[in-house]
Amino acid sequence: MKRIFTKFSVLTFLCLLFINAASAQNITVKGTITDGQDKTTIPAVSVVVKGTTTGTQTDANGKYAISVPANGTLVFTYIGYNTQEVPVNNQTTINASLASSSQQLEQVVVVGYGTQRKVDVTGSVASLKGSEISKQASTNPVSALQGKIAGVAITNTGTPGSAPQIRIRGLGTIFGNQAPLYVVDGVWYSDINFLNPGDIENMSVLKDASAQSIYGIRAANGVVLITTKKGKLGSATTINYDAYAGFQSVTNKVKMANATEYGTVINELYTQNGQDPLFKDPSALGTGTDWYKQILQDAFVMNHNISIAGGTEKSTYNVSLGYLDQDGIVKTNNFKRYTARVSNDIQIFKDLKVGYNVTGVASQSRDIPQTIFHQMYSASPTISVFNPDGTYGDPKLQNLGDGANFNPQATLDYFNQQTKDYRVTGNIYAELKFAKHFTFRTSVGGEFGQMENRKYNPVYFATTAQKNDVSLLDLKRVETRNWIVENTLTYQNTFNEDHSLTVLLGQSAQSNKAYTINASAQNVPFNSDADLYLSLGDAATRSILDQGSLIKFASYFGRVNYAFKNKYLLNASIRADGASQFYGNETWGYFPSVGAGWVVTNEDFMKDQTVFSSLKIRGSWGKVGNASVPINPSQLTVSQTGQLIAFFNGLPSTGASIDMVVPPAIVWEKGIGSNIGFEAAFLKNRLTVEGEYYTRKTSRAIFAIPALMSLGTVTNDLIGNQADLQNSGVELSAAWSDVTGGGLTYSIGGNISYNKNKVTSVLSGKTPIYGGSTGLTNGYVANRTIEGSPIGEFFGYKTVGVFQNAADVANSPAQAGALPGGFKYADTNGDGKINSQDRVPLGNPNPKYTYGINTSFAYKNFDLALDFQGVAGVDVYNSNLAYRFGNENFTKDFVDNRWHGEGTSNTYPSASIGSSANSAPNSFYVSSGSYFRVRNAQIGYTLPKSILTKWKIQKIRFYANAQNAINLFGYKGFSPEVGPIPVDNAEKILASQTNYLNAGLDANVYPLYATYNFGVNLTF
Amino acid sequence: MKKNKNIYTKAVLGLGLIVAIAVIPACKKSFLNVPEQGKQNSAVFWKTAEDAGKGVSAIYGNLRSWENTAFPAIAIESMGSDDAEKGSTPSDASFFNDFDQFNVDPAQGNIGGFWSGQYRNINYANQVLDNVPAIVMDEALKARYLAEAKFVRAFSYFRLVRAFGNVPLRLTTPKDANVDYNLPQAPAAQVYAQIEKDLTEAAEILPQTYPAADKGRATKGAALTLHAKVAMYLKKWSDVATYTNQVMGMGYSLLPDYEKVFRLENENGPESIFEIQCVLLPGNPDASNSQYSQVQGVRGTSGVDGGGWGFNVPTADLAAAFEPGDPRRSGTILFRGTTTPEGDVIPKVGDNPMYNMKSYVPFKLYISNFNEGAQQNVRMLRYSDVLLMNAEAANELGNTGQALSSLEQVRRRARQGNPDILPAVTTTDQTALRAAIYKERRVEFAMEFDRYFDVIRQGRGTAVFGPKGWKAGKNEVWPIPQTEVDLSGGVLIQNPGY
């Protein structure tokens, strides 16, 4: 596939290069370009002959000269000014004065329940155009935000069809949903996996509390506003077809030991354990099986998107269809998504507009077992995939013990699970303008979704440890039925030209219902999918669990925006939210905000300065809430589980009792944020710079605090509002865009953000809350949260070396399980013995710095975009290394550096790395998670118009794109981008809450991959 | 135009109607009143006899839990003894060695696991004791339910007090975070007093036997036997004698074949006094959750399912402790390279030379997707314990004849009619007889989680476990779980030496 694409693209590009626009009867035109207002000359104005790529630019004195057809037209373009076209008509001198475009001023951003001129915004709002999102090879729109916006950190996951993790200005909540609120055309979502990136017109990220607080209830983790594409009034029908195809290939693969190396080190392990070596002659084992090579693949991906948009005088429409087919880099893994979207706006009367948006999505995932990643890592290379007789290579037959007793190929072959998601969502609205200044808008939105997961474990025998005697069919179905109604009334007026006032009043009600069925049965036969129904299974083994949740919200809100002479800006808003899951006096939460801005450049005293094209200073404060938290029982509930069934005379007797205490009533998590910032433009708006400083406090954050075990409750945690967190940081972004005399249009933008995360207080005080056991053995945990430290910092022993011999052990502080070749831990409290009191903080899984550099270049018909992105000041815990129960494989790096006798290493331990002394969380496993990557590299070519008119095509662009092709990092695992722990779809669709105390542990992580694709954009 | 205006008015009115329909329900006060979905509220529980029955069943069901029967129990009640060691592969769960060698860190999770497992039993018992008295139901049945709860509560406090010494004594369900959540430790003597009170009250009510359908519930014999054991730990010898004599008159008997005591067909048999009831219930892995046999099962069965993880294995010292020819050796220890009476071949080569025979379940009974040996009951109190307690008490009270007679009952059964082995003990010297009884207890109850605390209560900790690192003044008890000490904010006092 790779080769075909390469050939194809080379040919295409060669053909296109030789096509040139013809020109005749040229004359030379000269002239000077000036600013329409102050009459100063403007250098570097682009001068292009219309319809061609012929062009030049003005010199330092604003003068230009160009050869142009006598009947042609010149186009003068300059950033920050209106483009001007002048027909040549045989003139030889054409002077033009360009009117300063008020584009910068008039640029409109989408904010909560409306739009605002960017210049009027007093909070922190960043937007990204839909084209920036859809041009990337990201299948999820959120992923495309990576590196684009200061303060927005994206952590990708490799599983096709899964959503990346997004954090806006740090981690502000630990329990419940820490994803932002997504508002798509006015409908609220907590996940936008259903959305085709190609349908997005604009994405606005509300970053500070004042911008967010109008969404009070769910705003604490940030708000992402998305408007989808619509047709334009009175425009001809346009058909867009965008498609790409390519492949995804694993990068930065960790090299594992080969069979000989493995045999050698396993023999060392046996010797250290006082056993006879397992392998007689490791060197005879050869290289063995490379499981990564066996299980991973270069995965095909393709995406098609077709949209038809247009409008009459009174109505607009947009219809789009999308199709995504993505293979996973693990063989057999596949994700398909079909999307359809219709939007229609009708101006029924001059003052009354109605419309609707409807999206339908169907997706289907052929899942893989999540254990496969750990299995590839740990499977023995001495096992062949298949024996000569076609049976699976069996680890037990080599006496490999119980630690590595699997053949990953067999695991994959007998895994039969699929996840399907069907969803219809949208809204219908009406907008009525009356009494000149009033607009009333009502919108009813809803979502009906059904996700189903089906797993069938057949009867099979693959290897001694991989077999199944009784088949099991597992079905999980989650239905979502949500609705939201919103009514807003807006009053807008300007008094005496100086006082501009907008008042918004609104009301909202919503209901979110989830309905979950989890069922299974044994002995369902399987000849085809038609058999996979529980009714065919053994009746006695059928089990059905039916659960649900229902949450309702009622809200009222209002906002006032006032501007005086476009100089002084004042915004204030308040929202009152009632949420059904909070009871008593805590049902209602109130979320006010204020913001103020000063547009300095609109002051009279700034009139004559030439440094700033514009300068605004702004500050804001606001409160936000997070209602998306686990529902706490308000009263004791009865637990009636299988574990409580008693047996009398061998027969079951249902057991039920109360094994909980009433936790403290859970109330709103409240965020209080303040933000100060500036926006400045220089050099005739070519350079823009924005900077902000913010603090964001989460008070009464919901936290699980270990409860006294002597209470006898079944869970040892009590969830409650028991902590205060703080994120504070600085964001800076700058952008430069210009057109050179040679006709090169380019822009370079960069952003960097710094965030510091701290737990300012927690009910348990100095008593740490431990968490984070992914990939850890022997009951260890590697993360802890304690007052004064970041959430979930790594915590463990500090290694100071490796014991070289028995004397070394004897001369060091007493340490349980100490042996030559084992880690020597620091006696940090100096009491002469090593125990849990010697553990110290080892690192921080919350990134301090995130940054991105985004560039674009266009020259004649070529365009090029290069995006870079990275994080710094973050640590990763490599829990893969000691994730061992026996004879798991080792990395090549470990084999090369391990201790295997006195003096061989003072940093890497012996083959006994999995022992309880060595696998205890310690500094050896923690390393920097900083990385820098070439996020996107895209080169495109647009066919000249002259050819296209013949074909009745408006635009054809071909491009080649590489995503994540180059990654630089020092971490010795697969990827320092350790996102949420991959969760099997079967569990994910049932999961109600996630615990982020588990952050930054790398075990079983989907390896990093690069995507290479070729695409076409076609407009008819 | 007029027509248009009409339509316009209609449209606006229609719009208003839609808004009204949508808004009005949301304005109602009850809109936000959403009951919890799919959970039974406690306000409607504890109302009927059926609720009381479920509450009591929950107490028994929970006894199968991991904390009661698997790793935490092994760590606290078995690893310290000279009978058992970690087993399995060297690197797997090597924390067991820290218990075996007495250098365990108070933060080790299994200490907390055992602690919380016992307090969960206590909570389920307290739930019944708090709530059932108010239920209107058959008074006799109610009294029995309460007595059953008291028995399990006493058992759990006994396991706690001998493991940790002074522990919080929680006798009611927790009600208020500011009042009764963070309880201080009660002195061990006070805990023992409460255990005795519960057992006395339980023994008064509990029936000697149940109809078949209730087999497995705590009996009068169980309460008396446990009380005897508690009294033995307190050296209240006449009480031990009284309670054991009572039980000896209840018709219990020893099975002829020692090995068969631990097989499925003899569960709840004539020798059984109290067992944790475990069943493999098809279609219900949650109810079939015992891992007691699984964690101790033979590791490495060479391609045959039904073994286990191979933890808590007999030591060479234990293997050598049996008198020549004692059939209890092979009833206790499953040796590599042998074939079990049920025909399971234990391969010659493997991680460990010996496994616990008493938790063994024939491999063919394994069903995939279930824990190996999930059907094996855990023998908690056996009649031979009554006899040996009786012998010990009689010897301490100077009643040598009774002591020798009770001891001989145990040895006679072990002998299985073979006159050449296990000769009757005849010494009348109190010290020598005491030693003989101690030795008999070891071989009779080996691998039944009895030995470790038995040796400590005999005052022989240093002599027996000293070579492994046991120190008097410290190792009589394990440390209080560190997280519990931390969470108590100074209310709980760590045991000395930790």
Automatic annotation (TrEMBL), chain A:
GO CC entries: cell outer membrane
Signal peptide start-end: 1-24
Keyword field contains Transferase: no
Superkingdom classification of source: Bacteria
Family the UniProt entry places it in: Belongs to the TonB-dependent receptor family.
Keyword Transmembrane: yes
Stored PROSITE patterns: TONB_DEPENDENT_REC_3 (PS52016)
TonB-dependent receptor plug domain location: 118-223
Membrane topology, from the record: Multi-pass membrane protein
Protein name as it appears in the record: TonB-linked SusC/RagA family outer membrane protein
InterPro entries for this protein: CarboxyPept-like_regulatory, Plug_dom, Plug_dom_sf, TonB-dep_OMP_SusC/RagA, TonB-dep_OMP_SusC/RagA_CS, TonB-dep_rcpt-like
Compartment annotation: Cell outer membrane
Key words, A-Z: Cell outer membrane, Membrane, Signal, Transmembrane, Transmembrane beta strand, Transport
Species name: Pedobacter cryoconitis
Lineage, top ranks: Bacteria, Pseudomonadati, Bacteroidota, Sphingobacteriia, Sphingobacteriales
Automatic annotation (TrEMBL), chain B:
Subcellular location per the Swiss-Prot or TrEMBL entry: Cell outer membrane
The entry's keywords: Cell outer membrane, Membrane, Signal
SusD-like N-terminal domain residues: 75-230
Main location: membrane
Domain annotation RagB/SusD: ranges: 270-498
Database matches in Pfam families: SusD-like_3 (PF14322), SusD_RagB (PF07980)
Highest taxon, organism lineage: Bacteria
Gene Ontology CC terms, in alphabetical order: cell outer membrane
Cross-referenced InterPro entries: SusD-like_N, SusD_RagB_dom, TPR-like_helical_dom_sf
Keyword Signal in annotation: yes
Family of this protein: Belongs to the SusD family.
Protein name per its UniProtKB record: Putative outer membrane starch-binding protein
